[in-house]
Amino acid sequence: MSDVQQRIDQLVREHRVMLFMKGNAQFPMCGFSGRAVQVLKACGVDDLHTFNVLEDEGVRQGIKDYANWPTIPQLYVNGEFVGGSDIMMEMYQSGELQQLLTKA
Predict the structure, then answer these.
(1) Which residue spans within 1-104 are E strands per DSSP?
(2) Whose C-alpha in 6, 59, 76, 97 is 20 to 30 A from the C-alpha of 53?
(3) What value, to the nearest 5°, has the Cα angle with vertex 17 and ends 11 and 23?
(4) How far apart are CA 101 and CA 4, in angstroms?
(5) CB of 43 within 8 A of CB of 101?
(6) Based on the number of CB atoms within 10 Å of its own CB, is 6 exposed (0-12), middle (13-18) or buried (19 or more)?
(7) Residue 65, by phi and psi: left (phi above 0), alpha (psi -120 to 50) or beta?
(8) Across the 104 residues of the chain, what is the mean pLDDT of every consecutive 10-residue run?
(9) Cα distances (angstroms) measured from residue 10 to each of 15, 16, 27, 46, 89
């Protein structure tokens, strides 16, 4: 595992709810990242940790390999990859995301 992959793995394991995004929760830098933050807030998440991939090119590319998922944002809950903003939105609308976050 490369240094970047180890850093990503550590972040995912250290934080219950980890979102790799463009920007941060207070200032998302793209619409998809903004929507992901809104969905998590609507679920009542108060322990969201974010990583701004625009500040670290290694993580920006490495996160795509880590979950074998080509887009950002990427959500991890309890160390498990959940998906990007479209999947988060579908899970939110079905109530599945709220259940996942409540169990966590």
Answers:
(1) 17-21, 48-52, 74-77, 80-83
(2) 97
(3) 75
(4) 27
(5) yes
(6) exposed
(7) alpha
(8) 92 97 97 97 95 97 95 97 96 96 78
(9) 9, 12, 24, 20, 26
Q: Please give the order of strands across the beta sheet that includes 80-83.
A: 48-52, 17-21, 74-77, 80-83
| CA distance linking residue 87 with residue 85, whole number of Å | 6
Threshold 0.85, pTM exceeds: yes
CA distance linking residue 73 with residue 52, whole number of Å:
10
Residues 6 or more apart whose Cβ sits within 8 Å of residue 1 = 9
Q: Where are the chain's structural domains? A: 3-103
Other CB atoms within a 10 A radius of the CB of residue 100 amount to 17
Cα–Cα dist 37/41, whole Å: 6
Task: Name the token pair of 21.
Answer: 């995004």
Residue carrying structure tokens 């998302």: 28
